[in-house]
């Protein structure tokens, strides 16, 4: 896996020096969780620097039997504008290698920002608080994840997948395209590589081709454009919701998946991706979840349970974030969800972290078409 999983303490260092120094990315084959915590960056032009010396790993102090491999060279992150299709990057939180397929423009509703009267979204009925939240346009990217890195991030993030309801006679089928993720602009750490196939993913060469005359040198094939156009309603995110409670930030991204017919009624499905991030120094562990699900049909459902997706993740300074996806269905074309997580401190006390309210909105066209043949995994 790429050795440059950037922890919060390193971000300021990278930002300070990226204009003057080229940071060389290293690939280290780590086999244990303890070794994963020792991943660092190596500077190719300023090896004599003593600043943050303990935070850098070089070939002189690599674990015995491990091999350092050059992956590429960092580029200066873009402060303005967007990254183009074919841009190689490292995820600044989860550290995986990836490549940008295309950007999306979403409305970010950040409850940590002082609300304004205009361009706001009201609270759903019964949700905590009464303030409205102003939305601002923010860039996200549909990306491919390097499959070599998936085993190394499995403890902190599910290997993301885009899911669809099948357009087949068997309306029970749910299909997933693994190794896809949505990444915020600020989580992109761009780099370049001379490798013509720098990312290992079975869709890489079907979606992109190498063109040395272009910058970046990986350009979209017609299959990528067609896939994006035909499946646009099921790929595009529209709203992103964020809120912080006691240094724990929760970000929610809902996606509409489609509609099924069951027993002479319509059932609408959504996927939602959630990231929890510890912005403080105290180690905490997620113990319980509490959801409230409101449907336009007038029903209000309460869901309580242990952990999330069968896990009780620990959020620490070394591994501050955890990301997962789940699904929800309503017998109405729209609704709302909100709730809280209960986290435990090292001293055994508990506190609740708010999940920001978010809307579940369906699309007019409920018939996804033009599936790319494979590599789909049925989740039914």
From TrEMBL:
Record domain ApaG: where: 242-367
Pfam families, sorted: DUF525, YccV-like
Keywords: DNA damage, DNA repair, Mitochondrion, Nucleus, Phosphoprotein, Transit peptide
Localization per Swiss-Prot or TrEMBL: Mitochondrion matrix; Nucleus
Entries under SUPFAM superfamilies matching the protein: ApaG-like, YccV-like
InterPro entries: ApaG_domain, ApaG_sf, Hemimethylated_DNA-bd_dom, Hemimethylated_DNA-bd_sf
Principal location: mitochondrion
Transmembrane recorded as keyword: no
GO cellular component, one term: nucleus
Region of interest called Disordered, as start-end residue ranges on this chain: 114-133
GO biological process: DNA repair; error-free translesion synthesis
Gene Ontology MF annotations: DNA binding
Keyword Transit peptide: yes
Subunit structure: Interacts with PCNA and POLD2. Interacts with SSBP1. Interacts with PRIMPOL; leading to enhance DNA polymerase activity of PRIMPOL. Interacts with POLH. Interacts with POLD1; leading to stimulate DNA polymerase activity of POLD1.
NCBIfam families: PRK05461.1
Function statement: Involved in DNA damage tolerance by regulating translesion synthesis (TLS) of templates carrying DNA damage lesions such as 8oxoG and abasic sites. May act by stimulating activity of DNA polymerases involved in TLS, such as PRIMPOL and polymerase delta (POLD1).
Protein name: Polymerase delta-interacting protein 2
């Amino acid at each position: 896996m790429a050795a440059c999983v950037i922890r919060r303490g390193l971000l300021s260092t990278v930002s300070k020096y990226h204009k003057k120094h080229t940071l060389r990315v290293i690939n280290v084959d780590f086999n244990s969780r303890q070794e994963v915590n020792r991943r660092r960056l190596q500077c190719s032009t300023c090896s004599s620097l003593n600043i943050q010396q303990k935070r850098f790993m070089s070939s002189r102090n690599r674990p015995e039997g491990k091999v350092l491999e050059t992956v590429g060279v960092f580029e200066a992150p873009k402060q303005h504008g967007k990254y183009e299709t074919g841009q190689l990057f490292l995820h600044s939180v989860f550290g995986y290698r990836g490549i940008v397929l295309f950007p999306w423009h979403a409305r970010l509703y950040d409850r940590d920002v002082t609300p304004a009267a205009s361009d706001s979204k009201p609270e759903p009925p019964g949700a905590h608080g009464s303030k409205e939240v102003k939305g601002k346009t923010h860039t996200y990217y549909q990306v491919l994840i390097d499959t070599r890195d998936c085993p190394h991030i499995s403890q902190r993030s599910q290997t993301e997948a885009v899911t669809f309801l099948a357009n087949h006679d068997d309306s029970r089928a749910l299909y997933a395209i693994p190794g896809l993720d949505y990444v915020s602009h600020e989580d992109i750490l761009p780099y370049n590589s001379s490798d013509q196939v720098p990312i290992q993913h079975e869709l890489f060469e079907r979606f992109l081709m190498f063109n040395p005359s272009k910058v970046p040198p990986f350009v979209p094939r017609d299959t990528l454009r067609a896939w994006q156009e035909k499946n646009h309603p099921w790929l595009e995110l529209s709203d992103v919701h964020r809120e912080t409670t006691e240094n724990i930030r929760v970000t929610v991204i809902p996606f509409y998946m489609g509609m099924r017919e069951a027993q002479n009624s319509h059932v609408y499905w959504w996927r939602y991706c959630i990231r929890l991030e510890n912005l403080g120094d105290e180690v905490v562990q997620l113990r319980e979840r509490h959801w409230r699900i409101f449907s336009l049909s007038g029903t209000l459902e309460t869901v309580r349970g242990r952990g999330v997706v069968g896990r009780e993740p620990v959020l620490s300074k070394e591994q501050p974030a955890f990301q997962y996806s789940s699904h929800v269905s309503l017998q109405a074309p729209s609704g709302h969800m909100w709730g809280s997580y209960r986290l435990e401190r090292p001293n055994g006390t508990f506190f609740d972290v708010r999940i920001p309210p978010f809307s579940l909105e369906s699309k007019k066209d409920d018939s996804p078409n033009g599936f790319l043949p494979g590599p789909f995994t049925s989740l039914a």
